[in-house]
Q: What sequence folds into this?
C-alpha cells in the first residue's frame, strides 16, 4: 500500500501536529480534562488499574496456554472446557502431522491432539490429557460483542509470556481477509489493537472474562502494524465447540481485490463507472487456477449476479457446497465477456485426510 499525502498547506500539517502532541502528552496521564481543571476526564485512553483488572489478568493467566509445534513456540491458545479442550488459531499449527503441545506455568507442558479444525475461520480444537481435570477455563459469551466494547487479549507476543493487551471491538459485522501464510480467506471481525506476532490463537475477552473472539492476524503495511487486529467471531467458535467436528468450507483459492483499489493505469482500460473484483494470483493447483482464471482479470458477475465488493463474492462462495460449480463472468478491456466455471473444493481437505488416516491406523 502506497502512502498518498493529501494536498494542503504547511500550516494545516502544523495544526495536526499540535493536536497529536496534545493527545500524546495527555496520554501520559491517561485522559483529557476540561479547561485544565481537576474535573472528571472527558475521555480516558486506558482504564485505571483496579482490583477487577488484576483479577481478570489472574483468570486469563490460569486459563490461557502457549502452543508448541515441534518444540517451537508458535502461538497462543485458551482452555474452553474443564475437561481439557483448548482452542487456538489453525494456522499456528502449521498443517497436519506435527507434534503439538501446550505450555502453561500452572499446568506445565502437556501433549495435545488436534481434534477438529475450521480453516475458513482459522480455528483449531485441541484436547489435552483429561487426567488432571477439572482445568481452569474461559466461558464463551452468549452473543457477539457490540461495536465500541472494550476487550482484552492474552498471549505470548514475540516469545514473551503471559501478556495482556487492551483493545476495542471496531466493526459491527464480519469481513474477509486473505491470510497469505495459508493462501486462504478467513472471516473475521476487526478489533482496534496492536497485536504482535505470537498472539495468534489467544483469546479476546470482555471485562467479565468471557471469550468474545480469537486472535488470528493483523493489518500491516510492510513490516509495520496498523493497529487493526483480525479476530474470529463467536458464532463459528460456538459451532466448533458444540459439534467438535471439522468444518467443510468451500473455496476457489482465489485472492481478489475490488475494482476501485486499482491504479489508474489499469482502470483506464475500462469504461468510467465500471465495477467488479479483480483476480490476483490464483493459488497454483487450486480450483480457480485449474479453471484458467488469470491474474488481473476483471470479474463483473458471479453466477450471473453483478458484483462490486470482495465480501459479497466470498459470502456467496461460502454459501455453496463443496463440488458446486460457480460461474465467473470476466470482462476484457475490449468489452468482450468470457464465462469461466470453477469447481469448489474444501479448505480443510488436508486435515480431513489426516484425520481419516489416523482413524484407520487406530483401528
A:
Amino acid at each position: 500500500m502506497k502512502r498518498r499525502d493529501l494536498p494542503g498547506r504547511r500550516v494545516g500539517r502544523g495544526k495536526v501536529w499540535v493536536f497529536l502532541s496534545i493527545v500524546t502528552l495527555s496520554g501520559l496521564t491517561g485522559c483529557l480534562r476540561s479547561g485544565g481543571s481537576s474535573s472528571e476526564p472527558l475521555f480516558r485512553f486506558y482504564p485505571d488499574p483496579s482490583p477487577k483488572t488484576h483479577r481478570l489478568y489472574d483468570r486469563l493467566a490460569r486459563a490461557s496456554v502457549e502452543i508448541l509445534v515441534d518444540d517451537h513456540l508458535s502461538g497462543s491458545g485458551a482452555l474452553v472446557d474443564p475437561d481439557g479442550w483448548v482452542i487456538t488459531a489453525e494456522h499456528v499449527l502449521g498443517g497436519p502431522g506435527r507434534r503439538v503441545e501446550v505450555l502453561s506455568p500452572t499446568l506445565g507442558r502437556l501433549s495435545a491432539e488436534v481434534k477438529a479444525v475450521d480453516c475458513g475461520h482459522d480455528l483449531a480444537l485441541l484436547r489435552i490429557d483429561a487426567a488432571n481435570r477439572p482445568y481452569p477455563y474461559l466461558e464463551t459469551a452468549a452473543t457477539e460483542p457490540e461495536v465500541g466494547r472494550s476487550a482484552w487479549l492474552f498471549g505470548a507476543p514475540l516469545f514473551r509470556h503471559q501478556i495482556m493487551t487492551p483493545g476495542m471491538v471496531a466493526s459491527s459485522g464480519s469481513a474477509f481477509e486473505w491470510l497469505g501464510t495459508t493462501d486462504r480467506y478467513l472471516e473475521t471481525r476487526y478489533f482496534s489493537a496492536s497485536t504482535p506476532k505470537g498472539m495468534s490463537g489467544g483469546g479476546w475477552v470482555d471485562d467479565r472474562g468471557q471469550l468474545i473472539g480469537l486472535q488470528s492476524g493483523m493489518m500491516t503495511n510492510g513490516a509495520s502494524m496498523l493497529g487493526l487486529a483480525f479476530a474470529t467471531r463467536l458464532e463459528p467458535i460456538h459451532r466448533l465447540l458444540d459439534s467438535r467436528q471439522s468444518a467443510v468450507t468451500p473455496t476457489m483459492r482465489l485472492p481478489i481485490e475490488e475494482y476501485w483499489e486499482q491504479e489508474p493505469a489499469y482502470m483506464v482500460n475500462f469504461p468510467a463507472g465500471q465495477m467488479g473484483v479483480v483476480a490476483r494470483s490464483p493459488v497454483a493447483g487450486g480450483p480457480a487456477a485449474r479453471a484458467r482464471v488469470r491474474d488481473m482479470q476483471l470479474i463483473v458477475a458471479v453466477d450471473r449476479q453483478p458484483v462490486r465488493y470482495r465480501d459479497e463474492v466470498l459470502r456467496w462462495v461460502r454459501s455453496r457446497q463443496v463440488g458446486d460449480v460457480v460461474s465467473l463472468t470476466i470482462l476484457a478491456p475490449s468489452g468482450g465477456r468470457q464465462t469461466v466455471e470453477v469447481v469448489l473444493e474444501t479448505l480443510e481437505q488436508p486435515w480431513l485426510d489426516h484425520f481419516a488416516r489416523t482413524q484407520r491406523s487406530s483401528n
